[in-house]
Write a structure and sequence with these properties.
Elements (H helix, E strand, L loop, with lengths): L2 H6 L5 E5 L4 H12 L3 E6 L2 H12 L6 E6 L5 H14 L5 E4 L15 H28 L6 E6 L13 H21 L4 E8 L8 H4 L2 H8 L10 H12 L10 E4 L17
Helix pairs in contact: 2-9, 4-5, 5-6
Length: 273
C-alpha cells in the first residue's frame, strides 16, 4: 500500500450516510465507496436509496453500498432506522448525519410549524440517531483509529444570514454547537465528532437557486472563489476526516464554502482619504 493509500484509506470500514441519495450526502457516500468502505445509505425515500446503491455498486470501486428507508424526522423513525442498521452490522466506523431539510418564507409569513419540522430533523433527529448508534460506534473505535461522526452544518450556521430560511440557519448553528459538545464528551470513547459547514452546492435543497447553469453562475459570482462547490470538494473533506489523516481532528467545523465564512464585506477605513 502506498503512502497516500495508507493515509487516506477507509477500506473495509462500515459507514452510514443519512440523506445519502442526493446532494452532499450522495457525494460523501460516493467518496467512501470509491475508497473501499461499505456504505449504508438511508433516507425517507427508500427506493431512491436502493437505486443510488445500485449505481454506486456499478462504479467498479473496491467498496460497496446498500440503500434502504430511514426517516430521522420523528422518534419512531430514528428508532426504526437504528434497528435497521443493527440488523446489518454490529459495528459502525463512520456516521455521517447528513439528512436535513429547509423552509423559506418572508419574515412576516414564516409559519410556526416550520420551526418544529426543521429542528426535528436537523437537530433532534441527528442527536437521537447518534445516541442510538453510539454502542456500534464505540465497538468500532480504538485509540489508534477512532470512530468518526460527521454532522452537516452550513455556512448559514456560521454567518448571520437567513435569506428567509430562519429555522434552517438557527438549526445549523445548533448543529455546530452540538458537534463541539459531543466531540468533548465522546473523546474518551475514541470517537471524533466534526461538522461540515458547506457553502452553495448543487442539490435538491438548493435547486431553486442552482438548478440551471445561469442560476448557478449567479450564485457563484457571490462566492469569493467564484464557483460553487463540486463533488470532489466533499469527497476530499470526507476522506480526510474519516481516514488516518484526520484521526487527530475533533470538534472542528470545517468550512467548505469557497471563502464565504470569512467574507464579511466590512470596509471601516480603507476608503477614507
Amino acid at each position: 500500500m502506498s503512502y497516500l493509500d495508507e493515509l487516506f484509506s477507509v477500506a473495509g470500514k462500515k459507514a452510514l450516510v443519512t440523506g445519502g441519495a442526493t446532494g452532499i450526502g450522495r457525494m460523501a457516500a460516493t467518496a467512501l465507496v470509491q475508497a473501499g468502505a461499505e456504505v449504508m445509505i438511508a433516507s425517507r425515500k427508500g427506493e431512491d436509496c436502493e437505486r443510488v446503491a445500485i449505481e454506486l455498486n456499478g462504479l467498479g470501486a473496491s467498496g460497496k453500498a446498500e440503500g434502504f428507508k430511514g426517516d430521522v424526522g420523528s422518534e419512531e423513525g430514528v428508532t426504526a432506522l437504528a434497528e435497521e442498521v443493527r440488523k446489518r452490522t454490529d459495528r459502525l466506523d463512520i456516521l455521517i448525519n447528513n439528512a436535513g431539510l429547509s423552509w423559506g418564507a418572508p419574515l412576516e409569513e414564516f409559519p410556526y410549524q416550520a420551526w418544529a419540522r426543521v429542528l426535528n430533523v436537523n437537530v433532534a433527529g441527528l442527536f437521537h440517531l447518534t445516541r442510538e448508534l453510539l454502542p456500534l460506534l464505540a465497538k468500532a473505535a480504538s485509540h489508534e483509529d477512532p470512530a468518526r461522526i460527521i454532522n452537516l452544518g452550513s455556512v448559514m450556521g456560521t454567518q448571520p444570514m437567513a435569506d428567509g430560511a430562519y429555522s434552517y440557519t438557527a438549526s445549523k448553528a445548533a448543529v455546530h454547537h452540538l458537534t463541539r459538545t459531543l466531540a468533548n464528551e465522546f473523546a474518551e470513547k475514541s470517537i471524533t465528532v466534526n461538522a461540515f459547514a458547506p457553502g452553495p452546492f448543487q442539490s435538491r435543497m438548493t435547486a431553486f437557486a442552482t438548478g440551471t447553469d445561469d442560476k448557478a453562475a449567479t450564485v457563484a459570482s457571490h462566492v469569493p472563489l467564484r464557483r460553487i462547490g463540486s463533488p470532489s470538494d466533499i469527497a476530499g473533506a470526507t476522506l480526510y476526516l474519516c481516514s488516518k489523516a484526520g484521526s487527530y481532528v475533533t470538534g472542528a467545523i470545517l468550512p467548505i464554502d469557497g471563502g464565504e465564512s470569512v467574507n464579511h464585506g466590512m470596509r471601516l477605513f480603507k476608503d477614507v482619504r
